[in-house]
Write a structure and sequence with these properties.
mainly alpha; 6 helices
C-alpha cells in the first residue's frame, strides 16, 4: 500500500474524513485491495495475540496462587482481560477501516480507527509486561535439596 501512497498505519491513524479520502484516492484500486487483504489477515492474528496475553497473565495468576502471593494473583486475574479487550479494540478498528474502505468515509469511522490503535497497543504492552514481570516474580528458586545440601549452603 505504501507503494500506492500512504502506509496502512497512516490510514489507521487518519482520524479525519478529509485525510481518509486523500489516502484512498492515492491508493487506487490496488492499494484498496491490499488493505482488504491486510484486514482479513489481521483477524486470526488479533484472536491469537488476545488469547496469548490472557493465557500468559492467567499462568502468572496460577503461579502466584501456588507461591502464596494473593495480591499478584488478583492483579494477574484483572490484567488478563487486557489481551481480549485489546483484541476487541483492534477488531473495532478493523471494522471501522472496512467501512471506510467500502465507501462510508464519514465520522465516526476514521476517528474510531485512530483511537483504537493506541488503545490496542497500550493494553498489549501492559499485559505482556505484566506477564513477563509476573513470571520473574513467581519463578521457583532451587530448593536446598535440589542443590545437594540440606541447610541451603553450598559446600
Amino acid at each position: 500500500m505504501a507503494d500506492h501512497g500512504a502506509s496502512l498505519i497512516a490510514f489507521e491513524d487518519a482520524g479525519s474524513v478529509a485525510r481518509s479520502q486523500q489516502i484512498l484516492a492515492g491508493w487506487g484500486d490496488a492499494g484498496k485491495a491490499a488493505a482488504w487483504w491486510q484486514l482479513a489477515l489481521d483477524m486470526p492474528f488479533l484472536i491469537g495475540y488476545g488469547l496469548f496475553a490472557a493465557g500468559a497473565c492467567a499462568a502468572v495468576a496460577r503461579r502466584a496462587s501456588g507461591a502464596g502471593k494473593p495480591r499478584l494473583r488478583r492483579a494477574a486475574t484483572l490484567i488478563a482481560w487486557c489481551g481480549p479487550v485489546a483484541a476487541g479494540a483492534d477488531f473495532l478498528q478493523n471494522v471501522s477501516l472496512a467501512l471506510v474502505l467500502s465507501g462510508h468515509v464519514n465520522q465516526p469511522w476514521p476517528r474510531i480507527a485512530a483511537i483504537c490503535g493506541p488503545v490496542t497497543t497500550t493494553l498489549m504492552v501492559i499485559a505482556l509486561a505484566f506477564a513477563l514481570a509476573g513470571t520473574v516474580a513467581t519463578r521457583r528458586r532451587p530448593s536446598a535439596e535440589r542443590r545437594g545440601t540440606t541447610d541451603g549452603w553450598r559446600r
